[in-house]
Each structure stands twice: as C-alpha cells, then as structure tokens.
Amino acid sequence: MSKIAFIGLGIMGGPMAGHLVKAGHEVTGYDVVQAGVDRLVAAGGAGASSVAEAVAEAEIVITMLPQDEHVETVVFGDGEGGEDGGILRNAKPGVLLIDFSTIKPETSIKVAAAGRELGLRVLDAPVSGGEKGAVDAVLSIMAGGSAEDFEAAKPIFEVVGRTFERVGDSGAGQYVKAANQLIVGGTYALVAEAIVLMEAAGVDAKAGLDVIAGGLAASRILDLKRDTMLARQFEPGFRIDLHHKDMGIASAAARSAEVSLPMTALVAQLIAAARAKGYGSLDHSALLKVVEDLSGR
Ligand code: NAD
C-alpha cells in the first residue's frame, strides 16, 4: 500500500480518491474547495491545507484538475517557491506523478521533462468514462510515459479503472484523449439531432431511442444518457466548458499533425455555441438545447 497525495477532488477526483482509500492506500487530499477535502476525510482519507503539505510524505502524487493552468500552478507552484510552491519543489525525488487531467499534450510534455529533471517519474493519464465511470471505478485510462512508469502506476489504475493502455511517450495519452473527446462530442451532437427529428415528426422518441440502442447505432452515450436527455436534465456530469476546452485541444492537435478533421470543427462550433448561450456549466448532453434552438424548437 502506498502513501498517495491526491490534488483536485472534484466530480472525478472525489470518487477516485475514495476508491484508493477503500483499497487500503493512505490518501492525503488537497483541493482549493474545502468541500472536496471534507468528503475525502469523511471517506477515511486525510486532508491537507496546501499542495506542499499534501505531497510532503507521498510516494505517489495524483492530480485531477480542470485545465492546463491549474495543472501548471499545482506542479510548478505560484512562482514563490518553498512552502507555497508546487509538487516539483515539495515532492520527494523518485515520486511517481500521475496526472489524470485532460490538458494539452505540450503541457504534459513540459511537466514530464521538468519532473524528470528533478528525479520524479511522470505519466499523463487522462481518463474516459464520465462521472459514472469514476464512481463505479471502471474508467478507461490512456497513459503517456515510459513503460517502466506505466508498470509502476498499474496498481493505481487497477483500483480506479478497468481498461488502461500505455499509448506512447509523454503527451501521447493526451492525443488519445483528444481523439476520444471528438468521438464523444460528435455522438452527443447526433443523438441530439436524432431526438429533435423524432420529436418534430411526432413519433415516440423514447421508444425510438430504445430500439436504436439495440441496433448498429448503439453506444454507451445512448445507454447512459438517453433518458436524462429526453427529460432535459442537464446537471453535470461533464461540463460544456470542459468539453469546449477539449475541442480546443483536439483542434490544435489536428493543426500540428497537419490533418483535416471537418467533423471535429463542426462539433467544436456547436459546443462553442452552447457556451456562448450560457450553457457552459451544464452537462455536455445540453448540446441538445443548441440543436433545438437551430430548429426553433
Ligand atoms: P471539477 O471541476 O469537478 O474538479 C476539479 C477540481 O480541481 C475542483 O474541485 C477544483 O476546486 C480543483 N482545483 C482547481 N484548481 C486547483 C488548485 N490550484 N489546487 C487544488 N485543487 C484545484 O472537474 P472534473 O469534472 O472532476 O474534471 C477534472 C478533469 O478530468 C478535467 O481535465 C476534465 O476534462 C477531465 N474529465 C472529466 C470527466 C467528467 O465526466 N467530469 C470525464 C473524463 C475526464
């Protein structure tokens, strides 16, 4: 069993940290929002009041933060260093840093290079499976880093995930996650269009989606979200704001790989519209509201 520091105890990090406690690890958590820390303490973990305090004794440091800037602040510190500094200044050499956040590949590469210079082992390990995947500990984990560090992280991945693969060196996990997010965004957009079409035509959309889910168009999104979409329940889940960030990562990755991804561009624009309409903190299934607006429904 390991001493683990867990930074970022939100929708995903909260349940993931809880599973690690249940598996017998000594987990010390930190989040800028105290409620996340309180939830971990109630689950049997320990709370810290800073990144420095959380990582001081850790053998494994885990981050699950919203965006690039949060990862950079937590890893590199706020520039003042010392006690208030980030993971790099406060973790012991040899520590394994697993970043589960979805961020730009370049940021992951930068974090890994800086960490290795100080003797840390670093993996980018973004996840897929949504809040339910985190709660049920069945996440898919796409890891970038050395084969040796991937082996070292397996006992953690086995607790929070079900499918995990090393997909290449540092940053590779983020490219695979970008690919994942364009499939997820595209699927939501088309499920939304299917609902709008069926409802406008006056057919039974619930029965329609039930039968569709048994055919070739079956998907996990249909299985998990069709009822809440039909009921227009858009509590996150996964916020539109975060999917907007992910489509930006996918678009930039496409540009640097010099490939043309027209569907990705279209879905990115629909998600941008959702955000512009003020739906940023709703679940990404709220793309349905944008598709409805386009048809005046
Ligand atoms: P969230 O906003 O619920 O959780 C992030 C947590 O990080 C928050 O509790 C926030 O207070 C904390 N935080 C921010 N800055 C911090 C700092 N400087 N120090 C300590 N804590 C800080 O977001 P989430 O939905 O859990 O997503 C986390 C990451 O996982 C994102 O990169 C997201 O894209 C990715 N992701 C989310 C889902 C999902 O369904 N929600 C699924 C797969 C991947």
Radius of gyration: 20 Å
Order of helix and strand elements from N to C terminus = EHEHEHEHHEHEEHEHEHHHHHH
> What is the CA-CA span between the terminal residues?
55 Å
Low-confidence stretches: none
For the largest beta sheet, what order do the strands appear in spatially?
3-2-1-4-5-6
CATH top level class name of the largest domain = Alpha Beta
Please identify, by name, the CATH architecture of the largest domain: 3-Layer(aba) Sandwich
Helix content: 40-55%
Let me know the largest β-sheet: 6 strands, parallel
CATH topology of the largest domain, by name, is: Rossmann fold
Bound molecule kinds, no repeats: nicotinamide-adenine-dinucleotide
- So what's the overall shape? globular
Name the structural class: alpha/beta
Task: Give me the secondary-structure topology.
Elements: E1 3-7, H1 13-22, E2 26-30, H2 34-42, E3 46-47, H3 51-55, E4 60-63, H4 68-76, H5 87-90, E5 96-99, H6 105-117, E6 121-124, E7 127-128, H7 130-135, E8 139-144, H8 147-160, E9 161-168, H9 172-200, H10 205-212, H11 220-230, H12 240-256, H13 262-276, H14 287-294
Parallel strand pairs: 1-2, 1-4, 2-3, 4-5, 5-6, 8-9
Antiparallel strand pairs: 7-8
The structure holds nicotinamide-adenine-dinucleotide (NAD).
